[in-house]
Amino acid sequence: xxxLFKVLAHPDRVRLVEELRGGEKDVTxxxxxxxxxxxxxxxxxxxxxxxxxVRDRREGRQHFYRxxxxxxxxxxxxxLQFLEVRSPIEDGSHLDEVRxxxxxxxxxxxxxxx
Length: 114
Prior knowledge:
Blueprint: H1 2-8, H2 11-20, E1 25-26, H3 27-34, H4 38-50, E2 54-59, E3 62-67, H5 71-86, H6 93-102, H7 104-113
Antiparallel strand pairs: 1-3, 2-3
Helix pairs in contact: 3-4, 5-6, 6-7
């Protein structure tokens, strides 16, 4: 478990997981979506692949990646609740924004309860 937390400890890798939650993408598409250099994306994907968090396939010169367990993205989203309880933040709007990006349906349901 500690090794898993270590590999996910980098913010770019968390963003990668979020980006791949919707399905398979190529390195260039991920780099564009995250506004990061493709070489940096490739390095992070290599770390995620080493820990079997992503799988890749080749199509010609392109590499496509997908999460081995798409539910991992939901698990990370649930960690936001822990963060809010553990370390209350005066302005938690950035956490609300993450919820909207990662789970639009979940955010809508949460807002309807309030």
